[in-house]
What we know:
The complex is a heterohexamer, with 3 copies of chain A and 3 copies of chain D. In chain A, the strands form 2 sheets. Chain A has a 4-stranded antiparallel β-sheet, with helices on one face. A two-stranded antiparallel sheet of chain A has the order 3-4. Chain A is α+β, with helices and mostly antiparallel strands. Chain A is 26% helix and 41% strand. The interface between D and E is medium-sized, with 33 and 31 residues. β6 (89-98) of chain A pairs antiparallel with β6 (89-98) of chain C.
Amino acid sequence: MAETYAMKRIELIVERMAARRAGRVLQESGVTGYTVLPALEGYGNGQTWRRDADISGSSDMVAIVCVTSAEAASAALDNLAQLLAEQIGIVTVNDVQVLRPERF
Amino acid sequence: MAETYAMKRIELIVERMAARRAGRVLQESGVTGYTVLPALEGYGNGQTWRRDADISGSSDMVAIVCVTSAEAASAALDNLAQLLAEQIGIVTVNDVQVLRPERF
Amino acid sequence: MAETYAMKRIELIVERMAARRAGRVLQESGVTGYTVLPALEGYGNGQTWRRDADISGSSDMVAIVCVTSAEAASAALDNLAQLLAEQIGIVTVNDVQVLRPERF
Amino acid sequence: METALATLLSPIILFFLLGLGAALLRSQTTVPEAFAKGLAIYLMMAIGLKGGVEMAKNPLTIEVVAVLIAGIILSFAIPVLAFAILRATTRLNATDAAAAAAHYGSISIVTFVAATDALERLGVEASGHLVAVAALMEAPAIISALVIISRMDRQPKDRASAMADADRGELVREVLLNASVVVLLGALFIGWIAGEEGTAGIAPFFTGLFQGVLCLFLLDMGLSAGRGLRNGWRQLGFGTIAFGLYMPVVSACIAAIIAWALGMPAADAALLITLTASASYIAVPAAMRLALPKARPSVYLTLSLGITFPFNVIFGIPLYIGMANFVAG
Amino acid sequence: METALATLLSPIILFFLLGLGAALLRSQTTVPEAFAKGLAIYLMMAIGLKGGVEMAKNPLTIEVVAVLIAGIILSFAIPVLAFAILRATTRLNATDAAAAAAHYGSISIVTFVAATDALERLGVEASGHLVAVAALMEAPAIISALVIISRMDRQPKDRASAMADADRGELVREVLLNASVVVLLGALFIGWIAGEEGTAGIAPFFTGLFQGVLCLFLLDMGLSAGRGLRNGWRQLGFGTIAFGLYMPVVSACIAAIIAWALGMPAADAALLITLTASASYIAVPAAMRLALPKARPSVYLTLSLGITFPFNVIFGIPLYIGMANFVAG
Amino acid sequence: METALATLLSPIILFFLLGLGAALLRSQTTVPEAFAKGLAIYLMMAIGLKGGVEMAKNPLTIEVVAVLIAGIILSFAIPVLAFAILRATTRLNATDAAAAAAHYGSISIVTFVAATDALERLGVEASGHLVAVAALMEAPAIISALVIISRMDRQPKDRASAMADADRGELVREVLLNASVVVLLGALFIGWIAGEEGTAGIAPFFTGLFQGVLCLFLLDMGLSAGRGLRNGWRQLGFGTIAFGLYMPVVSACIAAIIAWALGMPAADAALLITLTASASYIAVPAAMRLALPKARPSVYLTLSLGITFPFNVIFGIPLYIGMANFVAG
Ligand SMILES: Nc1ncnc2c1ncn2[C@@H]1O[C@H](COP(=O)(O)O)[C@@H](O)[C@H]1O
Ligand SMILES: Nc1ncnc2c1ncn2[C@@H]1O[C@H](COP(=O)(O)O)[C@@H](O)[C@H]1O
Ligand SMILES: Nc1ncnc2c1ncn2[C@@H]1O[C@H](COP(=O)(O)O)[C@@H](O)[C@H]1O
Ligand code: NA
Ligand code: NA
Ligand code: NA
């Protein structure tokens, strides 16, 4: 079996307009990459939103996935706490195994 | 490092037409929010589907991500079992760390 | 509480043009299904890309999610290592709990 | 014969064949879903407006109402027949058979438009209220299929099979207020009250471009039908495939008799026959995923989109026009 | 009265009402986001080109410049007034009030176009430079709202509230180089230098189709407004809802006085009044998510898209045309 | 000179410059991908139909066949030359050089259309079969580049570098049945058999709107090119950037000689020269991701989309028309 290495996977679900800011926070925290996925609809706080049903797009969310080392993940969490105090969003971290650890 | 708290991440991959029903099941199970992501294509049961190649959209799937407490997750799994007996879909749960546990 | 079973969740973030090839690798490794999610934008290697801002689509990435047994996951990792040596992409694996293990 | 050739040489049909061929050759050409959905809304607006403007020219007579009612009855009735045939001649289970039957009772708006186009190439034009007939024939077939299934299932429902209230509400809205019903009837009404004069400013968009947009849409339909056929045909038995070919003709005959009984003019009869013969591939599949999730899309969609739609568009329409000329003659 | 009826019977407004009604009845009809965004770009190109071609016909006079400046001043000033009113009459906090105020200072290009369409139905046409006014009125209101908030917040900023340089850069680009400013001003400039002759080849697309595309877009606006209203109205107090109805009229009166002072012709005055009365629902919400993330979209968007936009399109435009005739008369 | 000015003042080019400028100023304006792809399909249908209708007017002569063959040979040959130049003058490795070379052998359909538009502004029209030449020049360059690379790589292939059968199948379909080949050739064929009369009903959509849609598409091309240039130019050495500017002229000279040898009329020669000088930015990048994944998109895409495309559209086309007039004179 291919050898695997422990890393962290950060998943940030955040408003679309805050995605760029979140990306900068991640970069400053030392991660080497991240990927932004679109969301279609969602529920929170008793309200639902739906991308195609709101021409202003002001409730749109995205999911940002970032695989990174434990240190960078820890720094990222510290820095994201502040962003999340201001913008709508949630963040999760969990352990994952990766191939090719030198990539992160 | 920012303090983190244990939560569950539920990921439900389900047909698009069942997403609303799944959302209602999650809400009834006591989760505080969830986000629906679109899928482009997929494979299962020896068949592939592709969003842009099927004008009827009848095979389209979505991924529903829900971060929630262990209790709500457990209730959600019970309730989703029934939905998944009828509609096409799979569900996974895993442990994650979050900031601001009061949000869930 | 509904009984759950241990499985692996593979997440592959890979260029869109390599998604089909990755799908074939997964199928050959014995997984029973996977789902491809689109990405909007991303960052890596000091460069950002953005789907709507590049008419050629040549930097587009997708996320491939695959829930599968430990054996199939191990085979998939072996086979993906080779694909990832040629194409741009990263792969993560983690433990998840599922309902209805006979589905995988 | 001449009709058949004229139909086949229409660019609309040629683009359909192009898509069909490309998909069968496994080309990865696709029309993005968001773009195709936008075009579909455009087409329904254009069809509705045109029908409404035509309707405004004549008073609403008792004959018009009779045709509307006939359409609704056909939509309710065809699924009963289709279900009986499928159960008798194929090995499909009750759920799959009911779901497929619903598709044949409902209608395909693109087949309707292709027939309108074929009529125009022959120099005739049908009445505007046929658009209303089309809109009204969408939903009854779904209700019919659900009644069939609930009759079969007489045992007391446990929690799993009984539908929750919220789920039922979602289904009702999907059946009665789906995009094609809303846009088609809404645009019909707008065309009707605004009239020819009121819609003159929007005519270049909705009338001038109609045929061209239809070409693009039919390219996409061809791509979808070809892919559906390539993936799905192996799952269908011979009896089921045959059903996809003769059922439209059976429906057409029934509609022809009704058109004759109502004394409909030839062009109107051709459209009523076409609507009855056509099978849904957007509204009904969506409703079936909600109402009968156990029914397999690979069965009903391959039938309606992969087999019946190409059959109707290529061979059916000239045949139905011929039948209409016969019963109206 | 006649104006009001003519406006209401325009297909554009009827499609808006169709969307509004469908969303209030909880229909799931939607226009895909990517398609709607594409149409929005088309509309802005068409508006800009038309304005530019008109502008090319006349020299740039001092009167034109005066109107441009008046528009900018109105966009800066209205938020100050709106903020004061909201703080005095509602329980909205400063951030929510400032964000909402920014929307009312900025403009809605669709309301502008609906007014242009209403004028054309009455046989009058406004000057091309009003398009430039529209483009220039987008951004100042945002700046105004941010100044208001920064004045309120006198305590020394900690790291959390001070904006990072990169964040500020993003905001500035979003405010000054957002899609509608770029496309509107760019197309205006292109229309201006290419002129009627240079744009003849593209006229069928940008002029002929304009009204039809607008119908499709307004169907989507109606769906959005109806959904926003259904979800959001419960979160607004009575005072806030009332604000969404009287604020456009207040703004309109101010603009009418300025139009009178500048001696603007009636059609131009009608558009300046409409712009001032209209509230943004695309550019400003996006900027507010960046600049004032704590302001609640459910407040400002329900106000501008759910209340003020329908009010303006249905009742406001005839009123503003009437006011313009009065002050220009 | 006059030609150059007429080209630069075309709204098509002006919208390209608008997009380019906005992207260089880091505006976040974008045209949604799904919408742009839909427009691209429209454009290819329109181009194909027009070419086919033109071709139907004249019999297929030996001269036409000669031009088709010349195009295919050019597409095969240019990558060999481009590869040699890149290896001699830049530090690109063999894979990057081969991938970039493939782009220059293949064609850009938008550059082709911009040249057609420039010719029309000068009052001349080229023959319909040049569209067929465009379609046939897409793929050979890709094959050529793959042959070059496989020649270089003489060592026995291990499993990693040998392509699996399924992968090869996917590549072959991507090269021979990609969307632009399918739609372009399909529409050409449809236009050819339906003829002017058969396509009259769809002419308002495909002919009337063509230039307008092109403006919207070129706005998007400008945004893409500007962004690509801003992100990518730092990764290219001076030699590589220079290649993006002189290579199209080199290719143009070769094509001009062939056009002269074949005795082509000036307008046709201008298009053959333009095709040869143009570089692909959709079909070839996609094929390269499959066939040569190690080649860097930031190199070949910045070259073809960020440097050569703007050069051709702004400066190249007037030059190529001049060259064509010279060799055909
Ligand atoms: N627990 C959660 N899990 C996943 N997504 C969530 C969760 N809570 C909120 N969201 C997403 O965030 C959006 C805003 O939530 P809220 O901040 O609660 O209004 C929702 O509409 C969802 O898309
Ligand atoms: N193990 C899996 N992991 C991820 N997605 C899956 C899996 N199995 C099925 N799917 C998704 O569910 C769809 C239907 O699968 P099936 O029910 O097996 O026909 C597939 O096309 C995939 O998109
Ligand atoms: N650590 C990571 N986590 C998530 N996505 C990544 C990561 N690294 C790279 N990516 C994605 O892969 C793309 C190419 O990355 P690279 O190979 O580093 O140029 C990026 O633009 C991201 O979309
Ligand atoms: Na039917
Ligand atoms: Na305003
Ligand atoms: Na070339």
